[in-house]
Amino acid sequence: MKLRLEDVGVLRKHRALLEHVSLTLEPGQLLALVGPNGAGKTTLLRAALGLTRLSHGSVWLGDANVSALTAKQRAARVAWLPQHSNAAEELSALDVVMAARFRFDEPSAQSESEAKKALVRVGVGDVAPRALATLSGGERQRVALAGLLAQAAPLLLVDEPGNHLDPAQQVDVYRLLGELWQQGSSVVCVTHDVNLLRHLGNPGEVRVAGVAQGKLRFECRFTAPELPDKLGELFGMTMHSLMLGGHRVLLPERSP
Amino acid sequence: MKARAALFVVVSLLLAALSLWIGPSFAGETRDFVLFELRLPRLLVGALVGATLSIAGAAFQAVFNNALATPSTVGTTAGATLGALLALALDVGGGMLGVSLLTAAAFGGALVTTLLVSGLAASGRLSKNDVLLAGIAVTLAASALASGVQFASDARALVAAAQWSLGQLPQVGYHGVFLLAPFAGVTLVGLLALGRPLQNLALGEDLAQAQGVNVTRLRFSVLLVASLGVAACVAWCGPIAFVGLIVPNVVRLLVGPKLRSLLPLSFIGGAAFLVLCDGIARVVLKGRELPVGVITAALGAPSLVFLVSRAKRE
To answer: Is there a contact between A51 and B206 if contact means CB atoms under 8 Å apart?
Structure first.
């Protein structure tokens, strides 16, 4: 699914959350959005989902303006993994994933079997009957990912999928996202930690876009030589590059 | 969970059926008359009212994402009361047509206050408590208006209003059952049909929207369908509090939050609960009846406290 933002602006209480943002994601591409807190990354995802009223510009999913789609049509094109879950704690993992099948007109037995498949696919098939409240942070994030999968949309918007996870879980989550991408999904991934992106696989194809103060500041390949400097400028830090086992690792340090 | 649900249904139906025999027993023709002409229609009315108030409570709790949201706490009952009192003051009560006018007035009041509250609560970012605050504000305003209406009414309307506002199941015979059944039916079928998108709402409003739920339209549909049933109940029986709060919360503690079981079990449990309360209300004082609302509060409040404290310990 092709995603296109054309000169998008979002205003909230006279403050610009996004200004003149234009970008295009071709089918099968992966774009990482990086930037400081409050830069507008989440707002950008919400704009792409049609959850935020635009003050300017337009968002296109394939050949359709997102504001012209019904909720179900939109859900068939794009799925979202929000940064924070607001799900009721007593719901079971299975309930949560089944909800993601809403866009399909199918009997609930079918939703249930698809949801179970998705849970198995992300490695937590055994937690299906358990309440969210009893799950660990890693299990919860996998359940949320299973929901993303179960919605079966070609474009995935994921917001800080490694948030609050231990390093091993973070790597697992990025590997899983990488698999979905290799299998043909288009992905927009918001992250603070650029180093995690190498676990997506195929780093030469990963696009990185920097966002600060509601504006798109730069865009380049993950492997581009200029990335450390661009990121350093974006965060107001010095970004050191270290080579570790053939991979470039970035280490931020307060500028003198 | 399935066994628990089945047990809940069986116990509810048994209790409801047994309450037919609560009260003094008679023999012969008198017995048949008391059982089938007096108690059975009243039991059926009570079942319909309890079922409707409970399933509406369960739906309100889901749509506002708040366990304390009920027809009574978000202003629906207050609005229906105001509408009904206006109708009584203007003397449209009595007769088949009169009853439906009273229902229409109660429905109008219920819908206006419910939509007002959901509008107030939805403006700006929705906090869980906003809806209750808005509900209290609207309830107070509606009660003040209702007092004004009563102040301006004549003595006959005052007596009718006072009797009505106690919350009692009326001795209306089978035609009451036939009048109430369509409203309860529409509320039941409508809310069950909306159960799937309502379940998505439990994941958060934004995620539900992203998953394909038109949240604005869903809210409106749920409030409309639930208000319709609640208004009919209030028009018939006066405001009966607590049922819509207690029954869905008890059912949730027993079988979990999944709406596919929570909604229909609230309907059945609510029917049994109100019928049982009405049976008790018939016999607790010698020679006279207590308003059923007194019993629902006296039975419901402690059982809710018990269940909540037990759930906390687990």
So the answer is: yes
Q: Which of B301, B168, B166, B160 is nearest to B243 (CA)?
A: B301
Say whether both B264 and B134 belong to one domain. no
Query: Are residues B202 and A99, on separate chains, in Cβ contact within 8 Å?
Result: yes
The pLDDT score that the predictor gives to residue B115 is 80
- The pTM is what? 0.87
How much is the mean pLDDT over chain A?
93
- The mean predicted confidence, pLDDT, of chain B is 84
pLDDT at res. B146: 84
The Cα B312–Cα B297 span in angstroms is 22
pLDDT (0 to 100) of residue B99: 57
pLDDT digits (tens, 9 = 90+) for B296-313: 888 777 877 777 787 666
Same domain for B159 and B256? no
Overall number of domains in chain B:
2
Range of the domain at A237: 3-254
Q: What is the pLDDT of residue B38?
A: 83
> Are B212 and A95 an interchain contact pair (Cβ–Cβ within 8 Å)?
no
Low-confidence spans in chain B with pLDDT less than 50: 95, 124
Residue in B with minimal Cα distance to A107: B196
Phi/psi at A41 (nearest 5 deg)? -65, -50
Mean of pLDDT values over A210-233: 94
Write out the residue range of the structural domain in which residue B175 sits: 73-240
**pLDDT given at position A197:** 94
pLDDT of A40-73, one tens digit each? 999 999 999 999 999 999 999 999 999 999 999 9
Whether B37 is covered by a domain: the verdict is: no
Specify whether B249 is located in the same domain as B288: yes
Q: Are strands A155-159 and A215-221 parallel, antiparallel or unpaired?
A: unpaired
pLDDT of residue B52: 96
| One domain for residues B150 and B188 | yes
Q: Do B235 and B247 share a structural domain?
A: no
Query: What value of ipTM does the predicted structure carry?
Result: 0.93
**What is the total count of domains within chain A?**
1
Q: Are B287 and B230 in contact (CB under 8 A)?
A: no
CA-based nearest residue in chain A for residue B213? A71
Whichever domain contains A249, its CATH number is: 3.40.50.300
Cβ–Cβ gap B202/A88 under 8 Å: yes
Compute the nearest-CA separation of A150 from chain B (Å): 10
Contact between A75 and B252 using a beta-carbon 8 Å cutoff: no
User: What is the per-residue pLDDT for B182?
Assistant: 92
CATH of the domain at B142: 1.10.3470.10
Do residues B194 and B256 share a domain?
A: no
B211 vs A91, A95, A100: nearest CB: A100
Task: Determine the distance in angstroms separating the CA of B204 from the nearest CA of chain A, rounded to an integer.
Answer: 5
